[in-house]
Write a structure and sequence with these properties.
This is SMC-Scp complex subunit ScpB. Helices cover 41% and strands 15% of the residues. By secondary structure, it is of the alpha+beta class. The chain folds into two domains: 64 residues, Arc Repressor Mutant, subunit A (Orthogonal Bundle); 100 residues, Arc Repressor Mutant, subunit A, CATH 1.10.10.10. The N and C termini lie far apart (63 Å).
Length: 201
Amino acid sequence: MMIEHDPDIRAVEATLFAAEHPMTVENIRRYVGDSVDVAAALTKLGEQYDGRGIELVRRGNSWHFQTAADLAYLLRREREETRKLSRAAVETLAIIAYHEPVSRAEIEAIRGVQISKGTLDVLMETGWVRPAGRREVPGRPLIYATTTGFLTHFGLTSRKDLPGIEDLKAAGLLDPIDIALGDMHFGEESDGELEIVEDND
């Protein structure tokens, strides 16, 4: 496909190439100016880069260029993994991803066991989990959510792309206990917040 030399599209393209991190439409607009239709430029760039070695991808509300997924193996270096996530960390990450924002007490209620502070620290060090404020209940516990880095690592556009419980069952990734837990309700959403009663020491 012939690349168009529209100055607005070129400006958005240059901004994204120079960026160290994924950028939102608002971030891009700060560089290219309010007169540029950033959303339209991103759509056009996505079409122009479709099928090429580099592609424009959206992660949540942010955009960035990356190596095409089918060519990533060309740039991957073989290296020894120095640390693997524990089962507790994997379960905690999954709970945060599917129920965010959640507090430590809510995570423990879902898992049925306590988690160590180190588990959340490891997930934050990976850049997959972040503090997301405090729950407006007695004790104001800290709540956690996933990051854009989480979406990028797992190749997700948004959390809506997470596999559903039926997908996990079909893949054989749930044992009977997991299925039973998945069928339980640990809180209903109301005005964007989970209504879960917590015990605070």
